[in-house]
From TrEMBL, chain A:
GO molecular function, one term: phosphatidylinositol-3-phosphate phosphatase activity
Residue ranges of the region described as Disordered: 550-659
GO biological process: phosphatidylinositol dephosphorylation
Keyword line: Cytoplasm, Hydrolase, Lipid metabolism
UniProt family annotation: Belongs to the protein-tyrosine phosphatase family. Non-receptor class myotubularin subfamily.
Record's bilayer topology term: Peripheral membrane protein
Protein name: Myotubularin related protein 7
Binding, substrate: 275-276, 338-344
All residue ranges annotated as the Myotubularin phosphatase domain in the record: 126-504
GO cellular component: cytoplasm; endomembrane system
From TrEMBL, chain B:
Domain Myotubularin phosphatase residues, every copy: 128-503
Provenance organism: Pelusios castaneus (West African mud turtle)
InterPro entries with a match to the protein in the record: Myotubularin (IPR030564), Myotubularin-like_Pase_dom (IPR010569), PH-GRAM_MTMR6-9 (IPR048994), PH-like_dom_sf (IPR011993), Prot-tyrosine_phosphatase-like (IPR029021)
Name of the protein in its database record: Myotubularin phosphatase domain-containing protein
GO cellular component, one term: cytoplasm
Location of region: Disordered: 532-559
CDD domains named in the record: PH-GRAM_MTMR9 (cd13211), PTP-MTMR9 (cd14536)
SUPFAM superfamilies named among the record's database cross-references: (Phosphotyrosine protein) phosphatases II (SSF52799), PH domain-like (SSF50729)
Similarity-based family: Belongs to the protein-tyrosine phosphatase family. Non-receptor class myotubularin subfamily.
A molecular function GO annotation: protein phosphatase binding
């Protein structure tokens, strides 16, 4: 609060990024948790809410005649451009936001003030929604081969691992501790996924400290134990997800990878996924492409290619596919690691699990998957997503990439997932929002120390409560795509990976399909269900009535049903949108070079301004056809289905400092 | 000419057919005048005597053969982009087959083509040809305004050989004036009405370029014609589908574009679109990239980029939206032309109508639009679709301008999934039939040629086949609901996608996507059926498609 120099600025303009000529006048508020822009237009008073924790960068641009521009880029890919009339105000807002966007203590984060008005019991219930013990039970462990180990009970063996780890039954505490000493950050091999049907498993760890020649008997025994836990196979794969060059470079630092000669019966495999620094700059490059104003097709495709983003996504998918294949088709267990085993390893293990097990493709299962492979195994959420002010070199879109992999799979298998795209987008949003406690800190240990579960709420409960919004209408438990392992096409497959417009340009409403098939089908599905239920009731009643020989009354109620049905189809018909500035896409207007002479031949440019003068509709939201882009994208209350809606719904709980 | 002379060998046993996604089958290969057939033999993978391949020879774009001493293999690359492989025992047989296919598939004469021989029992010859007469379209306009009349000045195709016999022109302009205006336009394509926008009474006109030439000729009749299209005091827009510079340069060749001083009520805009050879090359490059399975992710994107196909798509949609915007938002009349007025012009006017007019988005309305704006309007299908993306023949006048149109419509359907009554499958069928068909609808370059060849008397209409209930059902979008509004698409690069259903149709399996559509269909029908009386039984089930052998949907050309 003491960081807010300027709680309120009037006459601020919010720029529409698609057509920069459009701007709305309003008032800017800074609160302890949000930046809020309220439009002056009296009927709508549209509001744009941005959580401080979503702010990734703030840029103060050169002052112009109209004011001082401020550009706010958000971690959920929203870009807000404001023009503040007074340079001094702009500076104050800038300085305040810089501080607000970079909290230094966990206690400053939104989840500690966010209160969805649930009582203690409901909060506890929420945290119990996803349980890992149940999950390992579901997989079929503990069993004859795997047991739960309490060796890490007090996080003494490995402080970034969970307290409860599943290890081969034949691995003694001595072996585990010995192995942990031979692994980076002491992240010893532990069970991530177990396949009941054939005993094959996916284990994960960090790199071995093998250097050029070091060996560790316990570590070798550990891998041996993993192999023995799968009696159907006489070897295991060890998958190093790094490019070979990186792994070799690590040897010089006393780290590295397993030497096939020292371990009995392993098959070693490199899968070249790049490190967090490469990924960070790749995303940066792709976002620059997204930010281009009316780019040409070439600009866009070149930019996308140069970013390398889809190449990286494909590398992660390929690794997941390789592992899923080893487990499902060959029945071979796999040990996965990268360097520390908390980024690429998490990506790859979770993609493989998702391919292997239909449970993870359900809503509940997906929550469990993130909880298992990411949260419990010490993915460094705080560092990677910059929740607290820290080293910018630690930031990297690791889980974003995993979420995108899921989307890419959803595109290829439209019926395979119980949840829809919105579910993924909202999870991404909340990984950065810090509104819920799930993703705080870097490890389970830290979360326990902070007593996260007693002080904050769980995202999973929140999503589960609103699960109707996240359903994929095409999902059916008995559908062929929901059975067994998913086998994505592998070759040729480059063209299967597409730019995810719905995520990276999600706030540019004008770019998206104007009609949502998902929502429509969900409505249809509900309607059908309702009608079927009603029909059932009616039939029962009819039977009763027949018994008493009173046939008359059914007619009316049936009529009502039909009317309702008609309503559904028409209400979905009110599709609206506005044209964009097509003339700007028509390149090389002649009058751009009036110097060519030949005055009579110089044609005119049909600009938005020209059109506007004669056509007020272009900028207004009043007519039937406009409005979709204008109404929905910003306001949390009118925003339909955006995550900012959460902040909107919770707006009364937000801590207001001003107003 | 006798087909028999071209058939060097009619039948070869033990030929193995393979194509991506299906198990290879062995059988007897037969060559007829118009088809390549393969029926499987006992012991093969297929059922005995089952027809595994039923391919229209006209569909074959390129034949590539490789012979060894005792056998040979032929790769058939089809105009619909599928690729088939035949393994033939015997070198001589292989050479003879490939010679026969080459000769038969490149028969030039229209009247020797299959539609003139195709006589399905279930259809009558005359059906379908009169489904969408211009008179009907004119009558709809006549109920709204008297400013436009139907003229038969081109009754004998003498004023403009590429126009139909009847055209819609301003009532205030007589036929003599039209004749003089026609002489001032390339190929005689004087400005005529393409679309009447009922909502505000504005019109979309199209023509070819005026023959202004280096000496800046004027034509009072043309000026009169164009000003008659406008009400007093109104202004119109001329959208030239060439760049300003290209339009200016065209003057050196006798063409040009309307000048401000001669046409004071018209403002000119330019929406440059590629056509002709560059477009064909773009198509070839794209298909090449799609078929190259060795590409890495990066190479794929750069090949996609360098094909420029998506850029052409963006250009076409932008210009069509510009025209639509002038009419809908500016409430102004629009004239579209490029050079000949038979390619990009039609692309823009047809696309603008799909965007503006909900009628054009229905199944029959769309057929009517194609009939009016492409077929009768004189898009030279015979020239443009003679060869597809694989051909090694020297390019002549080929250009996939109609395919570009279909792709744009597909993009609209993707952005507005409820607003088109028809589905992707219809667009695919149309694509196939423009390149090789059993029906006469896309034959020839103009109505004049169609009359000369008696196409309407001697061939069947594609529409009458498509409008059979069993076919229609396949082409309906289960999500369709009538949408009276204008559908303004996004033309940002992020919003446009490669049309995988067409370009990757034979390369990747669409099984999972097909399943999704089946699921959508199931959901929607179960909702329709839920109210007790399932009144929505408009389409009769029944009538298995007799004309089609078993696996033809996968392999053969429909027809």
């Amino acid at each position: 609060m003491e960081h807010i120099r300027m709680p309120k600025v009037e006459n601020v303009r919010l720029i529409d990024r698609i057509s920069s000529r459009k701007a709305v006048l309003g008032t800017l508020y800074l609160t302890a948790t949000h930046v809020i822009f309220v439009e002056n237009v009296s009927e709508t008073r549209k509001e744009t809410w941005v959580l401080h924790s979503q702010i990734s960068s703030i840029e103060k641009q050169a002052t112009t005649a109209t004011g001082c521009p401020l550009l706010i880029r958000c971690k959920n890919f929203q870009i807000i451009q404001l023009i503040i009339p007074q340079e001094r105000d702009c500076h104050d807002v800038y300085i305040s936001l810089i501080r607000l966007a970079r909290p230094v203590k966990y206690e400053e984060l939104y989840c500690f003030s966010f209160n969805p008005k649930l009582d203690k019991e409901e909060r506890e219930q929420g945290w119990k929604l996803v349980g890992l013990k149940e999950e390992y039970n579901r997989m079929g462990v503990p069993n004859n081969y795997w047991q739960i180990s309490d060796v890490n009970r007090d996080y003494q063996v490995c402080d970034s691992y969970p307290a409860e780890v599943y290890v081969p039954k034949s691995a003694t505490a001595h072996v585990i501790v010995g192995s942990s000493k031979f692994r980076s950050r002491r992240r010893f091999p532990a069970l991530s996924y177990y396949c009941k049907d054939n005993n094959a498993s996916i284990c994960r760890s960090s790199q071995p400290l093998s250097g050029f020649s070091a060996r560790c008997l316990e570590d070798e025994q550990m891998l041996q134990a993993i192999r023995k836990a799968n009696p159907g196979s006489n070897f295991i794969y060890v998958v190093d997800t790094r490019p070979k060059l990186n792994a070799m470079a690590n040897r010089a630092a006393g780290k590295g990878y397993e030497n096939e000669d020292n371990y009995s019966n392993i098959k070693f495999q490199f899968i070249g996924i790049e490190n967090i620094h490469v990924m960070r700059s790749s995303l940066q490059k792709m976002l620059e492409v997204c930010e281009l104003r009316s780019p040409s097709m070439s600009d866009f495709l070149w930019g996308l290619e140069n970013s390398g983003w889809l190449k990286h996504i494909k590398a992660i998918m390929d690794a997941g596919i390789f592992i899923a294949k080893a487990v499902a088709e060959e029945g071979v267990s796999v040990l996965v690691h990268c360097s520390d085993g908390w980024d690429r390893t998490a990506q790859v293990c979770s993609v493989a699990s998702l391919l292997l097990d239909p449970f993870y493709r359900t809503m509940k299962g997906f929550m469990v998957l993130i909880e298992k492979d990411w949260v419990s195994f010490g993915h460094k959420f705080n560092h990677r997503y910059g929740n607290l002010d820290g080293d910018p070199k630690e930031i990297s879109p690791v889980i974003d990439q995993f979420i995108e992999c899921v989307w890419q799979l959803m595109e290829q298998f439209p019926c395979a997932f119980e949840f829809n795209e919105r579910f993924l987008i909202h999870i991404q949003h909340h990984i950065y929002s810090c509104q819920f406690g799930n993703f705080l800190c870097n490890s389970q240990k830290e979360r326990r120390e902070l007593k996260i579960q007693e002080r904050t709420y769980s995202l999973w409960a929140h999503l589960w409560k609103n699960r109707a919004d996240y359903m994929n209408p095409l999902y059916r438990e008995d559908h062929s795509q929901t059975q067994g392992t998913l086998r994505p096409q592998t070759a040729p497959c480059n063209f299967l990976y597409k730019f995810w417009n719905g995520m990276y340009n999600r706030f540019e409403k004008g770019m998206h399909p104007r009609q949502s098939v998902t929502d429509y089908l969900m409505a249809v599905k509900e309607e059908t269900q309702q009608l079927e239920e009603e029909l059932e009731v009616l039939e029962e009643r009819l039977a009763e009535l027949k018994k008493v020989q009173l046939n008359n009354r059914k007619q009316n109620s049936k009529q009502q049903d039909r009317n309702k049905h008609i309503e559904l189809s028409t209400s979905n018909n009110s599709i609206a949108n506005t044209p964009q500035d097509y003339s700007s896409n028509v390149k090389s207007f002649p009058s751009r070079s009036p110097s060519q002479g030949d005055e009579e031949d110089s044609a005119l440019i049909l600009t938005q301004d020209n059109l506007k003068s004669s056509d007020p509709d272009l900028s207004a939201t009043s007519d039937q056809e406009s409005g979709v882009e204008d109404l929905s994208c910003r306001s949390p209350s009118g925003g339909g289905c955006l995550p900012s809606e959460d902040s909107g719904k919770d707006s009364d709980e937000a801590v207001f400092l001003t107003v | 000419m006798e087909f028999a002379e071209l058939i060097k060998i009619a039948k070869v046993e033990n030929v193995q057919l393979s194509c991506p996604g299906l198990l290879p089958v062995k059988g007897t290969l037969c060559i007829t005048s118009h088809h390549l057939l393969l029926s499987s033999q006992p012991g093969g993978n297929g059922e005995q005597g089952m027809v595994e391949l039923w391919l229209l020879l006209r569909n074959i774009d390129a034949v590539e053969k490789r012979v060894a001493s005792s056998s040979g293999s032929i790769t058939l690359k089809c105009k619909d982009l599928k690729v088939l492989q035949l393994e033939i025992p015997g070198m001589e047989e292989c050479l003879n087959i490939s010679r026969s296919i080459e000769a038969l598939s490149s028969v030039e004469s229209v009247m020797m083509m299959y539609p003139f021989f195709y006589r399905p029992q279930s259809m009558k010859l005359k059906d379908g040809w009169q489904l969408y007469p211009l008179q009907h379209y004119y009558q709809q306009i006549a109920t709204e305004t008297t400013a436009w009349r139907l003229s038969c000045v081109n009754g004998e195709f003498t004023v403009c050989p590429s126009y139909p016999a009847a055209v819609i022109v301003p009532t205030a302009v007589d036929d003599n004036t039209l004749k003089k205006a026609a002489r001032f336009h390339q190929g005689g394509r004087f400005p005529i009405l393409s679309y009447y926008h009922k909502k505000n009474g504005t019109v979309l006109l199209r023509s070819s370029q005026p023959l202004i030439g280096p000496n800046r000729k004027r034509c009072p009749e043309d000026e009169q014609l164009l000003s008659a299209a406008l009400n007093r005091g109104e202004r119109g827009f001329i959208i030239d589908t060439r760049s300003a510079q290209a339009a200016k340069q065209a003057r050196m060749m006798g063409g040009g574009t309307e000048s401000k001083s001669s046409y004071p009520c018209w403002r000119r805009l330019h929406g440059p679109l590629e056509r002709g050879r560059p477009l064909q090359e773009s198509f070839i490059k794209l298909v090449e990239a799609c078929n190259d399975t060795s590409l890495s992710m990066d190479r794929w994107l750069s090949k996609l980029e360098s094909s420029k196909w998506l850029a052409h798509l963006k250009g076409a949609l932008s210009t069509a939206c510009l025209a639509a915007q002038c009419m809908e938002r500016e409430e102004a009349c629009v004239l579209v032309h490029g050079a000949e007025g038979t390619d990009t012009t039609l692309l823009v006017t047809a696309l603008a109508q799909v965007i503006l007019d909900p009628e054009c988005r229905t199944l029959t309305g769309f057929q009517g639009l194609l009939e009016r704006e492409w077929i009768k309007a004189g898009h030279p299908f015979h020239f443009r679709c003679a060869r597809s993306a694989y051909s090694h023949a020297r390019l002549k006048q080929e250009a996939p301008i109609f395919l570009l149109f279909l792709d744009c419509v597909w993009q609209l359907g993707r952005q507005f999934p409820f607003s088109l009554e028809f589905n992707e499958h219809l667009l695919l069928v149309l694509f196939e039939h423009t390149y090789a068909s059993s029906y006469g609808t896309f034959l020839c370059n103009s109505e004049k040629e169609r009359c000369l060849c008696e196409v309407k008397e001697k061939t069947h209409s594609l529409w009458s086949w498509l409008n059979q209930p069993s076919q229609q059902k396949k082409h309906l979008n289960p999500l369709y609901t009538y949408n009276a509004l204008v559908i303004w698409p996004s033309v940002e690069p992020q919003s446009l996608q490669l049309w995988q259903g067409l370009f990757l149709r034979w390369i990747r399996s669409s099984q999972y996507l097909d399943e999704a559509w089946a699921e959508i269909q199931r959901l929607v029908t179960s909702c329709e059926d839920a109210p007790e009386e399932s009144a929505g039984d408009r389409q009769c089930h029944s009538q298995p498609d007799a004309a089609h052998p078993h696996r033809q949907t996968q392999l053969g050309n429909a027809g």
